[in-house]
Amino acid sequence: MAIPKVSKIWFNGKLIGWDEAKVHLLSHALHYGTGVFEGIRAYETKQGAAIFRLTDHMKRLARSAQVYFMSLPYNLDELVRAAKEVVRANNLESGYIRPIAFRGYGEMGLYPLKAPINVAVAIWPWGTYLGDDGIKHGVRAKISSFRRNDPNVIPPAAKASGQYLNSILAKIEVTKSGYDEAVLLNSQGYVADGSGENIFMVKNGNIFTPPTSAGALEGITRDSIMKIAEEFALSVTEKNLVRSDLYLADEAFFTGTAAEIVPIREIDEHELGEPGEITKKLQEKFFRVVKGEEKAYFDWLEFV
Q1: What CATH code would you report for 8-124?
Q2: What is the pLDDT of residues 90-107, one digit of tens each?
Q3: Does 280 participate in catalysis according to the annotation?
Q4: Pairing of strands 236-238, 206-209
Q5: pLDDT band (50, 70, 90) for residue 112
Q6: Which of 29, 66, 160, 268 could anchor a disulfide with 35, C-beta 3.0 to 4.6 Å?
């Protein structure tokens, strides 16, 4: 999906022009993937642009950086202000926000701790990641032959640039096979997540999702859905799942900042059908929350 050009990007403490946001060819992150990032959405509400769980996302950015021994040159408050500043500077009511911290120019080789840390926050207009039809009717998913990174190989708890090569291979594989999204298993054969989303399934009125110990990212949208489910007195259990659990599910869906809440209508040719009652209930509630229509969840919205 092409990135629509906007006016400003926040880069190392100041707003600069979109076309001025450049890095050196010998930046460490370009060669070795040594960066950490976030995906955050701003939504249009009646009260103005609101960024969904902004502080929680920036906290996760800091945790990812800590895993990779990256000392961020900006504190949490400064990062939160930067995100709001870039939304205002581009006069956007909604959009996808990408904070990234990466090792820049100055060092080469596999011991990177002396490389400078650059930090940027960008925003651009972005609609539904898996398509409006996917939101309404569900997507076709396929279990990839590529396994999710093992925690003792590359820690999936961090949202780091280089490790997404794993997801890219899975996404290419299933897309070339005619599917919309991939499901990745871990090295033990348990379900981990999608290429860029967490996964949930429903069976007999109960909701299940893989634990983070299975390789699932500690997703912000995942956490939001688990909390929203409590309001409906729905049971959510973190549990190791195998592929046949997905095949026999009554419902299944992906969650993520880019994807939001996307039903799964088919997995490996096993038909789950149109979005089920529980999926639709959670999906409708989530979209009301992010649009500022649920006062009980106002603390999740950080108004610009």
Answers
A1: 3.30.470.10
A2: 999 999 999 999 999 999
A3: no
A4: parallel
A5: very high
A6: 29
Q: What is the pTM of this model?
A: 0.96
Which CATH number is correct for 132-290, 3.20.10.10, 3.30.70.20, 3.40.980.10, 2.60.120.1140?
A: 3.20.10.10
Q: What are the pLDDT digits (tens) for 194-226?
A: 999 999 999 999 999 999 999 999 999 999 999
Return the structure tokens found at 145.
């032959």
> Residue 217 and residue 212: Cα distance in Å, rounded?
6
Mean pLDDT of the chain: 97
Boundaries of every domain in the chain:
8-124, 132-290
Quickly tell me which residue has 């100055």 as its tokens: 106
* Both tokens assigned to 20: 């001025």
Token pair recorded at residue 150: 């093992």
Mean pLDDT of 224-232: 96
Q: Please state the separation of Cα 279 from the chain's center in Å.
A: 19
3-state secondary structure of 142: strand
Phi, psi of 5 (to 5 degrees): -75, 135
Burial class (CB in 10 A: 0-12, 13-18, 19+), 208: buried
Percent of the chain residues topping a pLDDT of 70: 100
Which two tokens mark 67?
Answer: 């895993």
Coil, strand or helix at 72 = coil
Task: Report how far residue 193's alpha carbon sits from residue 215's, in angstroms, rounded to the nearest whole number.
Answer: 7
Pairing assessment for the beta strands 40-45 and 95-103 based on DSSP bridges: antiparallel
Distance CA 247, CA 141 (A): 11
Residue 160 is given by DSSP the state B
